[in-house]
Amino acid sequence: MGLHAAFRKRFLDVLASIYIYNEHRGYTSLDRVLDAVRARCPEDAAFIAAVEKHRADEEKHYRMFKRWFELRGEMPLKVDRTCGHIDHFIESVFGCTIEDLDTGAIVADPDAFEKLCRVIMVTEQRGMAQVEVLLTNPHIRSDKAMTRIFEIVEKDEPSHWQPYDAWLRAHGRRPNATWRERWTDYWIHKSLMLAKLPAVFLNRRNPRLTAWPDEDATVYA
Ligand SMILES: [Fe+2]
Ligand SMILES: [Fe+2]
Hints:
By secondary structure, this protein is mainly alpha-helical. The chain has one domain (3-202): Ferritin, core subunit, four-helix bundle (Ferritin), CATH 1.20.1260. It has helices at 3-40, 45-72, 85-94, 103-108, 110-134, 138-141, 144-156, 158-170, 179-202. Helix 2 (45-72) packs antiparallel against helix 7 (144-156) and helix 5 packs antiparallel against helix 8 (158-170). The two termini are 33 Å apart.
């Protein structure tokens, strides 16, 4: 394999591995948000339906990347929560891991819930901007299946942050990210792109997953 072909293969491999981690992290975390929202505001049917749609989309994205790896005959590279945008964001804003986040207490506390909504919104808006960039990338463009995946993600993304924005506005809460939240998002993104992604790319001994995370929730541990 030529150098260009090898670079392209590894680039797509690393990118899809980071995406599949984030998609899986997304829908499993939204399960917990949903439980809390259903318990706290069962009358808010439209909002619950929007979060359910968001959760279903993230699982759909996960399954598209899973299919991509299956067709390639390879498991994704094993990455950890240092490659998770939402992981860093939650840790920075709430001072704990996603596992330790008390979603019930957050939904019960309007200020904390407002922050959680904004973290989800900013993360989704970042995802939306990132997809625009990736869809112009020649390596991605050269892979028909991956281009198609990102086109679907692009189409879904706006509906992922809009319900939280609408909810915050309807409840007289602040929908715009604070200066600190913007700054946090910016640094997480930069460190993912400039440090984490290249580190996985260059680590030839980076192991692969031994099971799919939807079948074995401990594989990323
Ligand atoms: Fe997604
Ligand atoms: Fe999304």
